[in-house]
Amino acid sequence: PAVIRRADYRAPDWLIPDIALDFDLDPALTRVEATLSVTRNGDHDRPLRLDGDGLVPLAVKVDGRTLEEAEWHLEAGALIIPLSGDSHRIETLVELAPQSNSKLMGLYASGGLLCTQCEAEGFRRITFFPDRPDVLSRYSVRMSADKARFPILLANGDPIEQADLPDGRHSALWNDPFPKPCYLFALVAGDLACNADSFVTMSGREVQLGIWVKEADLPRTAHAMKALKDSMAWDERVYGREYDLDVFNIVAVADFNFGAMENKGLNIFNSRYILADPETATDIDYDGVEGVVAHEYFHNWSGNRVTCRDWFQLSLKEGFTVFRDQNFSADMGSHAVKRIEDVRILRAAQFQEDSGPLAHPIRPESYMEISNFYTATIYNKGAEVIRMMALMLGAERFRAGSDLYFDRHDGEAATCEDFVAAMEEGGQIDLGQFRRWYEQAGTPHVRALLSHDPVAQSVELTLEQTVPATPGQPDKQPMAIPLRTALFDPATGQHHGDELLMLTEPKQSFTFTGFAAAPVLSINRGFSAPVIVETNRSQADLAFLSAHDDDPFARYEAMQQLMVNVLIGRIAGQDTDDGAVIDAIRNTLTDPALDPAFVAETIRLPSEAYLGDQMKIVDPDAIHAARDALQTKIGAELMPLWRDIHAKTKANAFSISSAAKGARKLRNAALHYLVASGAQDGPAIAFGQFSEADNMTERQAALGTLANGSSPEREAALDIFYNRYSADALTLDKWFQTQAFALHPDAVEQVQALGQHKDFTLANPNRVRSLYGAFAGNQWAFHHGSGKGYALVADCIIALDKLNPQTAARLVPPLGRWKRFDEGRAALMRAQLQRILAQPGLSKDVTEQASKSLE
Ligand code: HT7
Ligand code: ZN
């Protein structure tokens, strides 16, 4: 497949100020008539090129005249029309078969609905159009459909008119006054019920809000509606951004390639990020709903009002919007816990990506298939880069920078450079060297060594940075790395203030005076930079910080490092002392000042995957054995505490408050250790929690704990869960996911059997992710020494590629990490990648991921 390069960007040859679309909707055969006003952009004689993917033009008109077939031609799916004048009216007619669209891009059918997904390049599957984000148009959309089957007809913007038509059909017209790129176009037709509400904006306008779902799901929409109203208020308060249309609609669909989509005024969501009630949704699901509703809403400014010039600028909208949604969620709950969760996700997904064959900068230089670049790097590292700017500027100057950015680029398609320039000017800061974060891939490593001079009563902190080589970038320049740092006096447990040290050189020293005794280093507090820090801190230093650091993230980090050190020692065959870990967990559990949610985060052992990331060559079996043994020991040694916490945190009635969520998190952690201890009554206690719980958070946690073992309670609980929830797709996903995640010796066979289960389908991306996506994240099972886990995922990729290449391609990266494993596993992983690549008719999506993964 062709490689698209950032350096080749050229402004569009033709602009499309206005487009009118007329949809005659039917799942089997939909007709789309498009009328485009086109204007020549600049002095050139190039023809009009309208992208198309799988479209056949049934009629082409220019200024009302039907063209002969010789007057246009198709080139790689695109419609090419030579034009003599500078502005024309172009009309095209195409036919689509939404019910056969298994790629879920363009116009498709999902659970009786018709809906669209156009980002990144789905609009070209609906009509001929310059499918690029820098062509902004005003849309007028008419839809007609059978009224009984599709009583609700929604599109972007404001509703203009509705009419009944002959033969039981009806029509609706929607106009969107804001020029937008075609990736933000959307329509939905179906039999939907509405949770209707309203919001009064800061200038006093009333906006009609609607969350549209299947009638039976209406009771599960309250949390999403609250999240929407909270988001609208937050964006006004924190960024001064007001909503601009008179209506804001959200529709939930069951089949969706991603989490959600920010189409102007008509967000379309994967139903898993809208529907929540205590019976079926965990606290993580509730938080997911809140975060994704906020994310898509915030795109109205960071993405829609100011959009991207080209897809290389994707992080301009996604990194900034993730940063905004992270801060919103922190404001809605706990800043400390949210930061820990976000860093855990960053490390699990982005650090792995950054150290593998698919590493790319947050502003990539090239791609084959843009859908492959909706990555943790673009989203999560992109957010970290914005976070660093916010930290360096401080709240007020960051706001001045964002105000300037929004005001200067409103209605435009902008670049990452435009954002940085606005921050630089509005925030009055030089971001020259900082721009390297946009250019260089790879997670920087920082080595921090503290040395104390008792005579001079000073300490010297030496910081050394290296940025690893990544594909296409063998040599790196030093980055500008902001590191929040404090030096603790071990005698008082206090520090003299938090300083922001800027590491800009390959090696730099900082001297601090007034230290009679050697202080303890707390660095990268709050995870101020997305880097890997290595220090010469002792286990005693880490234990001290785990009890005294006043920065919650640094406190958590110290505890994690303490655990990592013990486990890595054990994995290497040493008899590393675990006393400090057990003491630290005991201290944390018994500190009454701590938030239970924070305690639950802190006492949890690093994941098997995270431990693998700390090793040159990952040994999945040794990691599993060491972690399992430590877990058992922690469980046994602190047994009275686990039992006490498990009993004390049982709530009388369900609440979704932060306090209630924190209590459930801690209760589940206690149950986990209690069962891991091997206590005889462990499975019965877990089964008791499973049976008695009035909420999915406790029920699923108990099921997950049981799934790791082989007790009779395991099968009983899985059967009960299945029978209770088999009719509810989102909840049944949890049944598949729990088994795919299980740290069970037969996990591979179990996943293989589940792939043949009558409720498994490749047609639904949530189901695929629940089984194969979860399994590929289960390090011990997926990396089974026989290679059978690799074969299972490769089989799925091959079969799924024929239906839904985008979702198939997302399963490839776990196979690409072969360099991190022993020769035997590496050869088995490579063999599967080669088998995938040998498939005839393989998609561009999977070809790009698999071929890059072999390099
Ligand atoms: N901006 C949206 C991206 C998206 C997407 C990308 C590729 C294929 C399907 C997709 N659905 C949505 C989601 C977001 O970041 O808000
Ligand atoms: Zn987004």
TrEMBL record:
The keyword Hydrolase applies. Its cofactor is Zn(2+). PANTHER family: PUROMYCIN-SENSITIVE AMINOPEPTIDASE. The keyword S-adenosyl-L-methionine does not apply. Belongs to the peptidase M1 family. InterPro entries: Aminopeptidase_N-like_N (IPR045357), Aminopeptidase_N-like_N_sf (IPR042097), PepN_Ig-like_sf (IPR038438), Peptidase_M1 (IPR001930), Peptidase_M1_dom (IPR014782), Peptidase_M1_pepN (IPR012779), Peptidase_M1_pepN_C (IPR024601), Peptidase_M1_pepN_C_sf (IPR037144). It catalyses: Release of an N-terminal amino acid, Xaa-|-Yaa- from a peptide, amide or arylamide. Xaa is preferably Ala, but may be most amino acids including Pro (slow action). When a terminal hydrophobic residue is followed by a prolyl residue, the two may be released as an intact Xaa-Pro dipeptide. Its EC number is 3.4.11.2. Keywords: Aminopeptidase, Hydrolase, Metal-binding, Metalloprotease, Protease, Zinc. Residues 442-535 form the Peptidase M1 alanyl aminopeptidase Ig-like fold domain. Residues 540-855 form the Peptidase M1 alanyl aminopeptidase C-terminal domain. It comes from Sphingobium rhizovicinum. It holds the Pfam family Peptidase_M1. Residues 101-184 form the Aminopeptidase N-like N-terminal domain. CDD domains: M1_APN. Residues 224-435 form the Peptidase M1 membrane alanine aminopeptidase domain. This is Aminopeptidase N. One of its GO terms (molecular function) is alanyl aminopeptidase activity.
